[in-house]
Amino acid sequence: MPEGMIVKALAGFYYVMAADRIYQCRARGIFKKRGISPLVGDRVEFTPVGSREGVIEEIFPRSVELIRPPISNVDQAVLVFSVREPDLNLRLLDRMLVLIEKARLHAAIVLTKMDLLEERRGVEAAILPYAKMGYPVLQVSVRLGEGLEEVRSLFADRISVLAGQSGVGKSSLLNALFPELNLKMGEVSHKLGRGRHTTRHVELLPVDDRSFIADTPGFSQLDFGEMEPAELDDCFRDLARFSQDCYYRECEHETEHDCAVLKAVKDGELDRTRYEHYLEFLHEVKHSKEGRY
After folding, report:
1. Domain 66-215 belongs to what topology?
2. The Cα angle at residue 126 between residues 121 and 127, in degrees rounded to 5
3. Which CATH superfamily groups domain 229-292?
4. Which pTM was predicted?
5. Angle at 163 between CA 162 and CA 164, to 5 degrees
6. Residues contacting 293, CB < 8 A, separation 6+
7. Please, are residues 63 and 141 in contact by the beta-carbon 8 Å criterion?
8. pLDDT (tens digit per residue) in 81-115
9. Which of 4, 35, 58, 247 could cross-link with 258 by S-S, CB 3.0 to 4.6 Å?
10. d(Cα 113, Cα 82) in Å, to the nearest integer?
């Protein structure tokens, strides 16, 4: 049986790309009995039915599985944030990074609309803690053509989730990076027998034969789901580095005795804004847990 990858899921159909052809597939009922749903990004084995349809017979093991957005086997998340219109939102950035760290995904940060800044020192100071933690931070101006080559290299030979709130310039960035993408999206839509591409569902957009970008609606509207309070500090790279030296093993870094995190904040070794976001998320996670019981 042929193998392929699900590039789109819509209305109970799964669109499998195999050998440069798209098959509209249904999934065997056995998956529902097993409590498994095929996801965009899944590598699958399927039985062709005619020239354009098929039935998914097997889903191969996943390296990564995300719930929101529902997608699997992603290599990285590219987080797009504008520095103006809208202004840089560090709270949302930290929220996204927590969920990406929990999923054990690689993350890169792309700052757009740099040409709208009169001076860059304030933004560069705000983003410096993230670069120190090891996150690639790239600055871009689509209008000036600045930084595009560096960002383009992020997507090579990878399946990437592109995420960011509305208005940060994701579409403009994609069009500048991959002008041919609109054509490919049109070709895929034609093969799928659907209208124009929309952002109401997850879809893998082919950049080339080995590179895909996942368009992920609603990625900025995220909660922490089933996360436990004890998991949260591990999702803050900088905070986790200090938490290993806390006196209490289950330290939550609020008021505890001999808390290495609190000391690091006081000494200026840990960014205070990041720490404040940690506390805000900790209270949210605790409240969510109380609501589950």
Report:
1. Rossmann fold (3.40.50)
2. 100
3. Probable gtpase engc; domain 3 (1.10.40.50)
4. 0.87
5. 140
6. none
7. no
8. 999 999 999 999 999 999 999 989 999 999 999 99
9. 247
10. 6
- Joined together, the tokens standing for residue 75 give 């290599």
> What does the DSSP assignment read for the chain?
--EEEEEEEETTEEEEEETTEEEEEEEPTHHHHTT----BT-EEEEEEETTTEEEEEEEPPPS-EETTTTEES--EEEEEEESTTTTP-HHHHHHHHHHHHHTT-EEEEEEE-GGG-S--HHHHHHHHHHHHTT--EEE-BTTTTBSHHHHHHHTTTSEEEEE--TTS-HHHHHHHH-TTHHHHHHHHHHHHT--S--SSS-EEEEEETTEEEEE-TTTTS---TT--HHHHGGGSHHHHHHHTT-SSTT--SSS-TT-HHHHHHHTTSS-HHHHHHHHHHHHHHHHHHHHH-
**Separation between Cα atoms, residue 277 and residue 96, nearest integer Å:** 12
Q: Which residue has the tokens 């931070």?
A: 137
The CATH class given to the 3-61 domain equals mainly beta
Tens of pLDDT, residues 5-25: 999 999 899 999 998 899 999
Instruction: Please give the C-alpha separations between residue 6 and each of 58, 189, 202, 260, 274, in angstroms, as whole numbers.
Output: 12, 14, 11, 46, 37
Residue with tokens 């720490």: 275
